[in-house]
Amino acid sequence: MSIVLGSNRYGKAENRIVRIYRDTPRHEIHDVSVSTALHGDFAAAHLVGDQLHVLPTNTQKQTAYSFAKEKGLLSIESYGIDLATHFVDHIEPVAGARIEIEEFAWERVVVDGAEHNHTWMRRGQKTRTAAISVEGTGPAQQVWVVGGLKDQVILKSTGSEFAGFMQDPYTLLQPTNDRVMATSLTAGWRFMTTDVDWEAIYAGIKQILMTQFALVHSLALQQTLYRMGEAVLEAYPLIAEIRLSAPNKHHFLYDLSPFNVANNDEVYHAADRPYGLIQATITHDDASDAGPAWDSYAGLV
Amino acid sequence: MSIVLGSNRYGKAENRIVRIYRDTPRHEIHDVSVSTALHGDFAAAHLVGDQLHVLPTNTQKQTAYSFAKEKGLLSIESYGIDLATHFVDHIEPVAGARIEIEEFAWERVVVDGAEHNHTWMRRGQKTRTAAISVEGTGPAQQVWVVGGLKDQVILKSTGSEFAGFMQDPYTLLQPTNDRVMATSLTAGWRFMTTDVDWEAIYAGIKQILMTQFALVHSLALQQTLYRMGEAVLEAYPLIAEIRLSAPNKHHFLYDLSPFNVANNDEVYHAADRPYGLIQATITHDDASDAGPAWDSYAGLV
Amino acid sequence: MSIVLGSNRYGKAENRIVRIYRDTPRHEIHDVSVSTALHGDFAAAHLVGDQLHVLPTNTQKQTAYSFAKEKGLLSIESYGIDLATHFVDHIEPVAGARIEIEEFAWERVVVDGAEHNHTWMRRGQKTRTAAISVEGTGPAQQVWVVGGLKDQVILKSTGSEFAGFMQDPYTLLQPTNDRVMATSLTAGWRFMTTDVDWEAIYAGIKQILMTQFALVHSLALQQTLYRMGEAVLEAYPLIAEIRLSAPNKHHFLYDLSPFNVANNDEVYHAADRPYGLIQATITHDDASDAGPAWDSYAGLV
Amino acid sequence: MSIVLGSNRYGKAENRIVRIYRDTPRHEIHDVSVSTALHGDFAAAHLVGDQLHVLPTNTQKQTAYSFAKEKGLLSIESYGIDLATHFVDHIEPVAGARIEIEEFAWERVVVDGAEHNHTWMRRGQKTRTAAISVEGTGPAQQVWVVGGLKDQVILKSTGSEFAGFMQDPYTLLQPTNDRVMATSLTAGWRFMTTDVDWEAIYAGIKQILMTQFALVHSLALQQTLYRMGEAVLEAYPLIAEIRLSAPNKHHFLYDLSPFNVANNDEVYHAADRPYGLIQATITHDDASDAGPAWDSYAGLV
């Protein structure tokens, strides 16, 4: 029995890059946090501290900023593919690269009824995400792209039940046929191809998720999530699978009866912790292998 | 020289109340964090641990939840006045009360082009705020109301300079005639009256702040803030004063010249810390006394 | 009625300075976050965007870093006085300066029973704080120093009651004669002089606060806080006043009776929100005027 | 090609349980955040909203609190095993369970030189962690235990180099032979057995990690991490593997030369983002299969 180095990777996390397009008076803004991770022939750095094969994380950072201009930063999926393939193709010891990106949304300030050319408000805590993994070079090169969103807080004030559940000696919960259901949705969808209109599909998936959350009469958060994912896969056959993680942000009906005040599902306490947490994958049954697609690095996705 | 009890107050902070209006199929939601603070004749609790005059913080909580139904929770300023005056008017030892409220904004999910009746997305990290202070009872009772917003992140990608500044031996900064200017605005405006259309004025002030931020060609963040505040006071004579606190969220132009890549104000690094921090009050010269209006309790406002 | 500029200040917030003393093999570390704020004759910057009198916040930052070497960074109170008086004495338009400092504690790693010379572990989320305000120049110059600590989480598992409190129609709370009491203490103490052994007095006050929290049989958090503050003022006549802010971090006894499990004050739920919040000042009755001592700028103190 | 439900699980996250042992006047405290996740035959809940097999997350919560008394809460690994096996053994549809636990450390307040019986200060942001996965019932049951710690911030002010690294056109970094090295360590170690003195081994591993960080002359963070992990595996053959994730919290030497101030590795800027991020596994070459051991659920570990 001997001790050996197992899997390892390194990179620069949370590069806060802002890219302004200013070719016309109507500027565009792309505001991202980018993390890069490389793996490959780096054993010497671990075992004996030899950096000869180590591309500094500072270099990875410089590259990420420079590529925002060299390659452009319009769709984060596309930018991530450019960055990942660069490291794999041009840095000899690199066998694979992973790029994780969070994009912060901005909306234009409206002045006198018109969107302003160069002034924005930050839009929500929700972020769009992408994770790109590239392995190998030449014809054997494989690319995995996962698009997504996270921290999309949504709530419905009716149309949600929870009843008929299992009982054991620790079960005190009462069934309900009308409750507030809220979650802070994190979703990732894995593409089968890179020949994608990234902007259109992001907007389309987001709309489907929101629509299904609104329209499905919910018997359980599990059921709602499944329908949301199923609708995405029905609409987009190029999505191999979608993974959803949804905290059940509990809203407890507040008991006002001691004060002789009726509470007809009107006043709730929004609890912080604990929260339910539902995670589910909805997949095409012939989906390609996920490979390293979901191997989270810096927690941005 | 003896040791005495000075100013003191106590209450329940960050009650997370959600109020749903469901009288029609089109529900309304008001999602708030409410803090209550009381001061008055509470020396015995401090000096000898006698609680006879102490209304428990739990009771303050119960009242806050119950008032969301009893009095309604439409405008936070109005709800806060109801709650504060209740404590001052009906709890004997209470000389004054302060209510601080944060309101989290939601926007309706749009399904097939129409706003949904009972499904929302949380809108941004920006929150609306209110702080209500009530002192005294009967004809001598005084009420101060401060409305506001906080964490409104805004950015303009041009139309901002910083030049002609003072030099000393520690001054290394180079002047610039075109920069990205961004801040996370916190603003509070003090009313001279409580006879106010709270919703209309909140929307109006927010629009003025955004419009001025967009339209003013900025020579300094100080100047932009002054114009923003001045425009609010010009539009609303019932505002006694407005206080603005604005971190200068630095966006540094990234040096790509080592890579022979031109960066024509296109690629920036968004820095976390340190940040500039500008604070200013713009006031009517005959504004009434601020009293305890700005005496922050739980940090919600 | 005209619109005028009211009070205003500006500076650089949260400079993250780490100062290593390495004159001997046993290094020392001081790890701080420093905010600087200046006020004075800056109306032109606000009114017309004229920066001629504005010392850039970047310059304030450079000065703060350089002073860590020039003046040293041993006691944060002393460093803060040096920095504040520099701005007031040497920058013409500056009428007053405020420096707020948070210091992060480190403890040495122990190797084979001995403290290591140059390796540390970060010690807790608790931080030591200081706020220095300097107004005016020459003989009329005044200096206020507030030392403090924040986010010191403390808990006692017995020796705390809460009973005999006021009742109103919203009062549901049951009295208790044995509860868990916990808080995250923030304290600030104002000095009457600057001729102080800053390190000794910080250690002394912290010990007194912890000791009193442990030893006082608590009838209310108010009473505990008063005793803590009183003991500090008794021990240190050079302290004019101490201000304490203490969230009551509720620990609710968990009801295990449905499972026929006895819970003799053994299993609690630690709640996040809401929380009680007690604030009190304990003061010498002849304390000097507080002036701007408590006028918080960046929220570090 | 059809759409199917893939892997899924659900549970209650971040139950904030505090367990006091008060059998003698010298109390003991265990303060934890516990997350439970179940997987198994739950397809009906997803596909048709049928809850018949769903043990509510509320029930999981009740069980977690009750087990703090029924089974005790001394070592988090042991408590987690009890809880996981309960769900797998007694809840019919459950095929496997995962328990993730964070434990917050407290240290006794010292009064007059003696540790106090029932008063504590919270100790640091560092937490101890455990993740327990149990799959299957009866003789086929398998149990995986991962112990760990997270957010252990450590720093050394000398004894760290970074030089001799790879160069490419984006490489601007200068080599250094003396730097500040700091990280916020997260580590997890997987046990080959459950017959373990959990307290002793946690203390032992933590000491080894700190000692190696202090003693290894670092040529790269990678090398330091490898030595830390190797030393743990050498000391504890019952550890199958250890995984380390270490952000390189950059401390940049501050340039004081414009002010003619010498900075001999004494004044640094502590940067927030971006940061390097090094992840490595050190393993016994014959380690048993990791199974679901590292399949993080609620992010507590």
UniProtKB/TrEMBL annotation, chains A, B, C, D:
Pathway it works in: Purine metabolism; urate degradation; (S)-allantoin from urate: step 1/3
EC assignment: 1.7.3.3
UniProt-annotated binding residues for O2: T57, N248
Active-site annotation: K12, T57, H250
Catalytic activity: urate + O2 + H2O = 5-hydroxyisourate + H2O2
Entry's Gene Ontology BP terms: purine nucleobase metabolic process; urate catabolic process
One of the Pfam families matching this protein, by short name: Uricase
Binding annotation for urate: T57, F162, R179, Q222, N248
Molecular function terms from GO: urate oxidase activity
Family in the record: Belongs to the uricase family.
Function: Catalyzes the oxidation of uric acid to 5-hydroxyisourate, which is further processed to form (S)-allantoin.
NCBIfam families, A to Z: urate_oxi (TIGR03383)
Protein known as: Uricase
Gene source species: Cryobacterium flavum
Lineage: Bacteria, Bacillati, Actinomycetota, Actinomycetes, Micrococcales
Gene transcribed to yield this protein: pucL
